[in-house]
Amino acid sequence: MLSPKLKPVFEEALEIFPGGVNSPVRSFAAVGGTPVVFSRALGATLWDDSGRPYGDLVQGWGPHILGHRNPKVEMLVKRQLGRQWSVGAPTPEENQLGRLIQIAMPHLERLRLVNSGTEAVMSALRLARAWTGRPLILKMDGGYHGHSDGLLVRAGSGAAQLAQASSEGVSTSTAAQTISIPFNDLEAVRVALAAYPLQIAAVIVEPVAANMGVVLPQPGYLQGLRDLTRAAGVLLIFDEVITGFRVAKGGAAQRFGVTPDLTCLGKIIGGGLPCGAFGGSRELMDQVAPLGPVYQAGTLSGNPLTMVAGAAVLQQISKPGFYEDLEDRFLAFYEQLEPMVKNLAHERGWGPVVLQSCASLFTVFFSSEEVKDWTSASRCTVKSYSQWFHWMLGRGYFLPPAQFEACFLGQSHDKAWLNRLLRVLKNGGV
Which residues of 195-205 are buried (b: 16+ CB within 10 A; e: fewer)? Predict the structure, then answer.
């Protein structure tokens, strides 16, 4: 329940913003109830205005792999405030962040910094169309790549059909530039490439889907995409806005050993401030203005505050053993978490549960089957997830307010923090 102190805050927000929020999932529309309004954050904890703490399993939707207000990041951002914020000109700070990204992801021979994942994807697709001279983009059902018009689509009525708009305001002609097919289905890719020869510019994919909940690529799927796109002269784009610097230092490309033509980044590279990037080979990226004919620009791109925050994070997570420590800690946690949630769900009549994870990402699906694609994800019991969400919220834990999202863990979720959560589950919240 929303505290009496917080209720007027959200009521005021309703008079200012559509639905009282500035991004739809924050509205609690998918789980019911009134959003919690947070006023302070530190590490793995959020506090509302009444002073109540919440264990945070959202972590700003991904950027805080070191936790909220990491001391080193905070110190360097404060120091940067005394130097320069945004000048709309080259700065040494952007060079520092760019080089750190390249060290981790050497296949990004050139990259362009932008202000969001949406911008990064939009720009990468424009570059792909220019490079290939082809109009169509192939994406996966349930994959989210930002809210640009051409990607707010749903699958057509049959195999390899052009997509249909999934939002009002997206024109039919724009939606028809995209084909949407099932994730983890290489045969559907083959069919689409054969149905539209020399028309598909790029295949874009979240290498680990995280916007229909955490869904891993089936063995051989990403390599199959690489082989099929290369044979068809189609660019392969990895949307690593979420997976970049999270599932491995070099992202999903490193973890699964598959190198795309273009990569889109966000979240962690901004250190909690707005940032995105796209990059690839020198030959491809030299098509971007001012060197080439593909126009892209942004007044706030590369602003020094974000650059310093992002570099401070990348420097810390690049230390030897960082990812190995997280992986070991969270694997042990997942092994205990899944049976405890299953037992709780059984006791409360929420139905069967499947937990799916990759590194520091996980989703509790209320389903009786492994989730492999959007079709199987859509069979989950959303009502049960809502009950689970509010049960956890009532015990001081903030989860993603929607079934089809990922939970995010990080360095601040140490063993003591994780064990406290497990005790809550073991004792039924008592």
Answer: ebeeebbbbbb
Task: Tell me if residue 267 is catalytic.
Answer: yes
Q: Is the pLDDT of residue 2 over 60?
A: no
Query: Taking the complete model, does pTM exceed 0.90, yes or no?
Result: yes
Residue tagged active-site, from 54, 144, 196, 397: 144
Q: Which of 48, 56, 239, 373 is catalytic?
A: 239
Structural domain of 103: 71-317
Q: What is the C-alpha separation between 55 and 53, in angstroms, rounded?
A: 7
Decide if 414 is catalytic.
Answer: no
Has residue 84 been placed in a domain? Answer: yes
Q: Where a domain ends, among 271, 293, 317?
A: 317
Residue 239: active-site member: yes
- Beta-carbon count within 10 A of 395 CB: 15
Phi first, then psi, for residue 336 (nearest 5°) are -90, -35
pLDDT digits (tens, 9 = 90+) for 245-279: 999 999 999 999 999 999 999 999 999 999 999 99
Query: In this structure, is residue 1 part of a structural domain?
Result: no
